[in-house]
Amino acid sequence: MSKIRVGVIRGGVSTEREISLKTGSEIVANLNRDKYEVFDIVIEKENEVFEKVKDLNLDFAYIALHGVFGEDGRIQAILQSLGVAYSGPGVMSSAVCMDKEFSKRIVAGYGVRIAKWISVRRGETANFDEIKEKLGDKVVVKPNSGGSSIGVSFVSNQEELDKGLDLVFSMDKEALIEEVLTGVEISVPVIDGKVFPTIRIEALAGDYFDFESKYAKGGAKEYVYEFSEKVQNEINKFAKDSYYGLKCESFSRIDFMVVNEDTPYFMEVNTLPGMTAASLLPKSTASLGYNYEQTLDLLINSSIHVER
Fold first, then answer.
1. pLDDT digits (tens, 9 = 90+) for 263-278
2. Whether residue 202 is found in the same domain as residue 53
3. Domain range holding 66?
4. Which of 144, 162, 223, 289 is the most exposed place for a label (fewest CB within 10 A)?
5. Nearest alpha carbon to residue 178 among 123, 262, 120
């Protein structure tokens, strides 16, 4: 039986490039060579993808990119035009999920609870006193299309707001300003439409699950956790409804904040979840007996036969 030709695409052009390189290298190292012929494809410019992929005759591309030109639908469109199957959701779903404001509006339409927010686009101004009336005395400012908690600021006055927006606009053209929810962060993988065990996150290296907590060894305590039956059922329903409403395919990871241990709020969808040793999705699958290599098989199998 011939091996499946798998290209792992890593690197990229976004602020999350270093995480992508780590994710991709671990995937390359752990794919089962008895099943797969593996091609390590490192890109530094967007136009390299077509040139590096077109002559490899790939059966499947594992997209190990994050952020812009990874999770925003553009690389998915290139691979689709080449007739190469790929990991994660399709072009439209990827683009929508990358836009936090857009995705919040959609999941809210499916009855999923969301935090209050406003958006500010590059060139617009924001008045903290007006924002405070809507969202509270302290708010969080984040890139609308970013990830890995890069560019996130907690602000409580006009000066901090201006600095937070300047930071966002150095990397994105739109900022999301949200009410600050106090609670526990959780992450819920959905693979091939099935909700996997919830991962509870307790940041140890920062005040919240920031970049350092996410990617430093020992940066956070992350473990499978089950809430009371009523709360867990709502979390699972919100995760499945978000996956469905945003037209995700293959797999995604849905992040929530649970306030007072009983009220989950949707935060965002990760269409290409991190797969480093410190990542959340493999911890969830491990609780059901999948090792890292088997988890990669699970993700590839959930993706390779999807009709695009």
1. 999 999 999 998 976 7
2. no
3. 4-87
4. 289
5. 120
